[in-house]
Amino acid sequence: MRRRRKSGLDEVASWPWQMGILAGIVAFLLIRYGIGAWLSTTGGPLLGPVGQQIGGITAPFAWIVMLACWLAAAVSWGNARKRRSLHDTRSDLDSLADISWREFEMLVGESFRRQGYEVLETGLGGKDGGIDLVVSKGGRRQLVQCKQWKRRQVGVATVREMWGLVDHHVADAVHIVSLGDFTADAARFAAGKPIHLITGRELLDRIRAAQTAAGAAPAAEPRAVPAPASQPSTPAEDAPFCPACAGAMRRRHNGRTREPFWGCARYPHCKGTMPASF
Question: For the chain, which has fewer Cβ within 10 Å, the N-terminal or C-terminal residue?
Fold first, then answer.
């Protein structure tokens, strides 16, 4: 399934939202005042007087362009917020599968951003494959394809296809991110080449590591929810890490049997548990 060609507003929406705001202001000034000033100075005796009046004529169009850029900036802000939310709420492989293929691409892009990459959502891929992202870091330009396949392995044909795009797009490496696994032939073909095969488990490990690293920032932490009176929780210095999200755990007691257990401190956002001794 091919995606539609990106329009100018789509391009602005792919920028950071601050750039969209700035682009709107610059476009307004150029259209509202720049064209008239240019004609006044270079148009000669014929177009010079017209240039003095052109600002008033182009004013409505200048406002339209600026508002359109600001609308695209608002879309960019909303997408950035959605990417952060997708990333910070993933806890297991099922949560990676329980989103749309477009959201999966956004999630993978956010994961690369958390690793310090600049990410461009190209619009050249689609539900069936292609170049979904172009990521850059340290002067290296790399292609990314996302496969939200849980019950199907990525074969060598897909890996060969992506490898064949490296020269055409002047790239240094390829990343293929699959929710499932890769065939043995695909792994053999990638061996020794700048082809990185990333499974769903590896992607989840990256996400958890980024979540843990951001745990000290209050803005990235979910709002604390007090434990119910029937299940008091007490912090412990030797508390283990949550098996679901790698976060801190608290000692709790079963409300019915009163047996102790370790529960994730992020409950109810994460419901990871571990048995505990008395």
Answer: C
Tens-place pLDDT, residues 22-74:
999 999 999 888 876 766 666 555 555 565 566 677 888 989 999 999 999 99
CATH 3.40.1350.10 segments of the chain: 93-212
Q: Order the strands of the 195-198 sheet from edge to edge.
A: 118-121, 133-137, 140-147, 173-178, 195-198
User: Counting beta carbons within 10 angstroms of the beta carbon of residue 47, is it exposed (0 to 12), middle (13 to 18) or buried (19 or more)?
Assistant: middle
Which residues, including other chains, have CB under 8 Å from residue 87's CB and lie 6 or more apart?
A: 107, 110, 111, 114, 207, 210, 211
What phi and psi values does residue 145 have, to the nearest 5 degrees?
-120, 135
DSSP 15: S
Residue with tokens 């412990």: 236
Cβ pair 33, 55 in contact under 8 A: yes
Domain 93-212 - what CATH class?
Answer: alpha beta
